[in-house]
Amino acid sequence: MDKFIIEGKTPLQGTIPISGSKNAALPLMAAALLSENAVTLSNIPRLKDIFTFNNVLRVTGARVDFHENTNTLTIDPTNVHFLEAPYDLVRKMRASFYMLGALLGKYGEAKVSLPGGCAWGPRPVDLHIEGLKALGAKIRIENGYVYANTPNGRLIGGNITLNPSSVGATVNILLGAVLAKGTSVIKNAAMEPDVVSLCNFLIEMGAEIKGVGTSELTINGVKELRGSTFRNSPDRIETGTWMIAANMHPESKIKLTNCNTKELGMFYKIFSSVTGEMEITDDTISIQAPESIPAYSITTEIYPGFPTDLQAQWATMMTQADGKSTVTDTIYNDRFSYIPELTRLGANIEFKQNRAIIRGATPLTGASVMSTDLRASVSLVMAAMAAEGQSEVLRIYHLDRGYEQMEQKLNAVGARITRALSEENY
Ligand code: UD1
Questions:
Q1: pLDDT digits over 159-182, tens only?
Q2: Centroid of ligand 1 to alpha carbon of 190 (angstroms)
Q3: What are the CA-CA distances from residue 259 to residues 22, 44, 132, 276, 395 (Å)?
C-alpha cells in the first residue's frame, strides 16, 4: 500500500490543468452499452474507478480500449452476451450499479450485484429499483444480487417521482428509459452537470429527451441508438478542491485551466466571499489567496447548491479561518470521518448530528493521518500542505480512485509530496 509523505507549509503557485470528471464519465461509459456500434469518449481521466468500470464492461463481452496517452476510451458493445455485473467488481465501486439500467434497457435482462455499504454509512438503491420497476422491470433480490428482466424483452414507458432527488437513480432510470417502448417522465430528477452531460450524450446517440437540466425529464423511447463521439466534462469537484486548497495559504496564487466554470453552481459565489482576488473565464479560474480567511458556514444541497463532495475540503479550509463556522451535510449525514484526523493535525472541530463546528484559526502541525473515503483523504492532503512540518497520509488508494496524477499536479505548483510504500498492516 502507498502513502504520501508531505512537507508543509507550502503555498501553491502556478497552473494546474483540471482532468476529466470521474463521476460524469461513468454514466457515459454505461450508456455506451446502449449503442448499436462503437462509441468514443474523450477527456476520460486515468483513475482506478475508470479502470474498474472498464473491467465491468469487459465482463459482458464489450470491447474496451483505453488510449491512456490521449485520455480516450473506445467502447464497442457489439459482442455483449453476458448480462451480469459480479460482486467482485461492483463492491469496488458503487457506480457499477449503472449496469442495471444499461443492461435492462438494451437487452431486457440483467443480474447485478448489490453495491453494499459505503465508508460514510448506508447508501440505498431503493429508488433505482423502484424507478426501473415503474418502467415494467420484474425485479427480485436474492443472495446479494438484483435479478431483473422484462416480460417482452423491452422496458415500457412509466412515471417516477424521486424522493429524495438522486444522481445515481436518475442515471439508471434514464439508461432504462431511452430504449423503452413509450414515454417516461422522471420528476424531481437530479440536475447535476453529470446528468446533463449524460442526457446530451444520449441525445447525440439518437435519444429523445426533453427538460435537460431541469428537475423533470421526459423521455420518448426510441428503437435504437447509434455510436457517437463525445467529450467528457471537466471535473468540477477537482476544480473546487484546488480552489479551496490554494486559498489556505496567503501566498498562494494559482490558475486552473481546462475547467468548466459554468458548472460550479453556488460554490463559485460562496467561494468568492472567502477568497482574495479571483478572475474567471469560461474555462479558467485564477485565484490569489486572501491575507486571512473569514469564517463562513455552509450547508450542502443538491445542485446547484453547495456539493456534498466539497464539504470536507471546506471544513478543512475553515480550520484556518478566523472565527467559528459550521459545515452541515444534508445529503449524507455521516460524511465526517475526517474530523478526528484533522484534530490530530491540530484542528478544533466538534461534531453534532450532521454538522461540523469549527473554531479557527488553529495552527496545524504534521502528524500521521488516514481516512476512509476519497474526499476526506484529499482534505487531509490539503491540511498536511498547510501544516508545519512533516505529515504522513495513509491509505491513499482512495485518492488514486478519484484524483488524476495528484502529487505530480500539486508538486508542479510548489507542494512537497512524496509517494512511499507504507508498512501499515491492513
Ligand atoms: C453521486 C456521486 C457522489 C455524490 C452524490 C451526491 C457518483 C459516482 N457519485 O452519488 O460523489 O456525493 O452523487 O451528489 O456520481 N438515495 C436514496 N435512495 C436511492 C438513492 C439515493 O434514498 O435509491 C439518497 C441517498 O442516501 C442520498 C441522496 O439520495 O441521501 C442523494 O444520493 P445520490 O444522488 O443517489 O448519490 P449517488 O448517485 O450515489
A1: 999 999 999 999 999 999 999 999
A2: 10
A3: 14, 14, 34, 20, 28
